Amino acid sequence: MGLVYVFAASKSEAEPVQRIAGAPAGGTGASTGNAAFRLGGNEFLLIIGAMGPKAARAKAMEALGLSPIYDGSNRPADGKPEAVFVIGLCGALSASLPETRIVAYTDCHSTEPTKPSLRCSPSITNRLLDLLKSRSITCDPVIGITSSRVAVTKEDRLALARSGASVVDMESYEILAVAVEAGIPGAVLRVVSDSLETEMIDFNRALKPDGTVDQWQLFRLLLGSPIRMVRLLAASKRAMQEFAKALEIVLPSDCFAPATSTMPK
What we know:
Distance between the termini: 26 Å
Order of helices and strands: EHEEHEEEHEHEHEHH
Strand order of the largest sheet: 4-8-7-5-9
Shape: globular
Radius of gyration: 17 Å
Strand content: 15-25%
CATH topology: Rossmann fold
CATH architecture: 3-Layer(aba) Sandwich
Helix content: 25-40%
Number of helices: 7
Largest sheet: 5 strands, mixed, barrel
Number of strands: 9
CATH class: Alpha Beta
């Protein structure tokens, strides 16, 4: 049985996994804690609550035992996983990727210019793509980029696209980077929640310097754009409903089984 660590940045992104696993989505630790479960031939540890690059890196370091402050709570006894699996929402940087399109990262960039591109596990990624295709679920192989800021306008997205990336998120790169440090293969499966043309709320105004969210400022932003917020939430809900169909297929599968040459080189 393979042990896989699944990282989800928020409660809403983790909810489909919890439901598939038969765990109560609103239970203790549902928003920030860890939850262990089994599906098929795999054992999973779902790790929730790492929004933004800094928080994602810290969470990954704790979970993979690279942080001196981690106490090991909720980690399975056999410890080190065979794979790291990042899931959740992303934004499209290309008109060819509509809302609800599922994507598997082949590589991931960072908006920080000194950080090199990271390659996801070719073995796991190819298995994910082949499996979903065999079940008539469209999944595009893409290059992703992780940003510490929300791409609000189309111009913001096109600027990020010049890196060669097709989608953007705020966590994948840092989690993958920690996995590389720990010698563990990593993969990313996400779903597009906002297209290239989506008019976003400027959530950057609610971000603190450390990457956390100023809840009061966020509340003010939502009050100022209620209709836009309802549309964004509806799009995210539709995306996660489609994503859940893919996760129901992927999680019990043998996609995460060990294979030679799975680590990025």
